[in-house]
Specification:
The chain has helices at residues 5-23, 31-34, 51-75, 80-87. The protein is mostly helical and 91 residues long. The protein has a domain at 51-91. Helix 1 crosses helix 3. The model has no long low-confidence stretch (mean pLDDT 87).
Length: 91
């Protein structure tokens, strides 16, 4: 099976969102932990989310995971026959 450019972008897009949700909790400090906060706000609300740094890390990590996955696919480690044998499913 040959991937088209649109399929590659779709796989990268889904992988990017998964990695984003994995990186969101890192580096978050709540108002309660920081000792401050405005009156009437939730003490668990983040003080600074640092989204710019998280978006950069998400993009870099996604690119690395995508490159490793595509290299494994083109080397033959990730094909339907091999994966189905590992899972005990035969076609």
């Amino acid at each position: 099976m040959v991937y088209t450019i649109s399929t590659g972008f779709a796989i990268y897009f889904v992988l990017w969102w998964l990695v984003l949700f994995l990186t969101l909790p890192f580096g978050i400090r709540s108002q309660h932990e920081d000792g401050g906060g405005s009156p009437g706000t939730d003490p668990g609300a983040p003080v600074s989310s640092q989204m710019g740094r998280k978006l950069i890390w998400t993009t870099l990590l996604s690119a690395v995971f995508y490159a490793v996955g595509m290299a494994a696919y083109y080397e033959g480690f990730l094909n339907i026959d091999r994966l189905s044998k590992m899972m005990g499913v035969s076609f």
